[in-house]
Amino acid sequence: MTPRVVVTGAGVCSPLGAGVEEFANALWSGKSAIVPSTRFPGSTIAEFGEFNPTPWLGNKGVRVLDRGTRFLCVAAQIALSSTCLVQDAASEGDADLGLVCGTLFGGVHSIAMFDWSGLMEGPSMVSPMEFPNTVINAPAGQAAIKHKLRGVNSTICAGLASGLHAIQYAADFLRFGRARYLMAGGMEEVCDEAALGFRKLGIASPTGQAHPFGADRDGTVAGEGSALWMLETEETARGRGIKPWFEICGFGTATDARPEGAAAAIEQALQETGVGPGEIGCIVAGANGSPADAIEARALRCVFGERLARIPASAPKAAIGETMGASGAFSAITAGLALQRQEAPPTAGFAATDSGLQLSSKSQPFEGEYALIDAFSCEGNNAALVIRLWKN
Fold first, then answer.
1. 260 DSSP assignment
2. What is 165-225 written as a DSSP string?
3. Domains in the chain, start-ordered, CATH in brackets?
């Protein structure tokens, strides 16, 4: 019999604040973290302003970590603390405890600065202290060192679907018996290179706002942070006397930039779960206010039909911006909290939509055990995940 994979804790470091409770309270209040930037004058982004990781990580070894890695390390610390799995500083660490991180860019600013220094000043002037941050899996590796995670350590790059792919990758490892506990989710930072990429792609909102599925949407806004779930099997959780929060039920993926690909991913997730569209209690969408929202809306209408207009839906990127490789993980955290509360959070700043989804600027009560999370990228990376509120 295939082991049931469950969520037993979480860690969040977001523009809305650090910690699951702080994130949830801000999200359900309708607050938006999209504000004029303190780091990039003249820009509007969703950033963690005066970010100081020392309350969670202490001072030792923090200086060599870049911004994105610090986000990941803080989220990991919170997740480990919530599940009583913080490793003793004097120990070697648990060989069955690991991390799977989804990211779009990794430490792209560190990579760019390292390369630029070498090109402009010559190889001999490049700081060797910067090199460990210049590979795409550096954040996950640095987090493993910081928290003594000796188990599986993987980095998943699948566009805006990276966070959901990381969760599924970790779930499969647990089902195969390759690990006992795995943190899974994503991280991303807003930097000069990411902001430039948004502008070059033509997806940055000229008005500095993000209105997912909005009739007046004109683009998206960059966001940053890290979100992680702690995953383990039901058997392991019971052995530790830990009550699960949710169960990972079904996952679907398709590589197709058309609505048909996005719909296929959702249908796969429902089929693997063994439920029909009528059993989904709420939807947490990946829409970010860009033209790609229309593709997602069409895919959801294809799967849910007329019932789509009666399913409470939420688009958290209206509050935290487009967090790129971490966005699927933030959506997963949001969906889990919605199931616990039996209430979909507001979509910040929502006014009107032409998508056919039931969005609201206020929270929406619902009844149901299942939630759907989707993440779609304009380049064709599509993923969908179904979770279920834990019941024995």
1. H
2. HHHHHHHHHHHTTS-SEEEEEEEE---HHHHHHHHHHT-B-TTS---TTBTT---B-BB-E
3. 5-239 (3.40.47.10), 249-389 (3.40.47.10)
31 C-beta neighbours (distance < 10 Å), count: 15
DSSP assignment, residue 1? -
Residues in the chain: 392
Asked if 239 and 88 count as a contact pair (C-beta separation under 8 A), the reply is no
pLDDT tens for the chain, residues 1 to 392: 789 999 999 999 999 999 999 999 999 999 999 999 888 888 899 998 888 899 899 888 888 888 999 999 999 999 999 999 999 888 888 999 999 999 988 877 777 777 667 777 777 777 776 777 778 899 999 999 999 999 999 999 999 999 999 999 999 999 999 999 999 999 999 988 888 888 888 888 999 999 999 999 999 999 999 999 999 999 999 999 999 999 999 999 999 888 899 999 999 999 999 999 999 999 999 999 998 899 999 999 999 999 999 999 999 999 999 999 999 999 999 999 999 999 999 999 999 998 999 999 999 999 999 999 999 987 889 999 999 999 87
Both tokens of 126, joined, read 């490049």
Rounded Cα–Cα distance for residues 116 and 109 (Å): 10
pTM score, two decimals? 0.95
Contact 78, 226 (CB under 8 A): no
| Residue 358, token pair as written in the block | 């039931």
Phi, psi of 271 (to 5 degrees): -65, -40
Residue 150 burial (10 A CB sphere; 0-12, 13-18, 19+): middle
Strand-pairing partners, residue 347, are: none
- In this structure, are residues 3 and 320 in contact, taking their beta carbons and an 8 Å threshold? no
**Residue that the structure tokens 């807003």 belong to:** 190
Rounded to an integer, what distance in angstroms lies between the CA atom of residue 252 and that of residue 184? 17
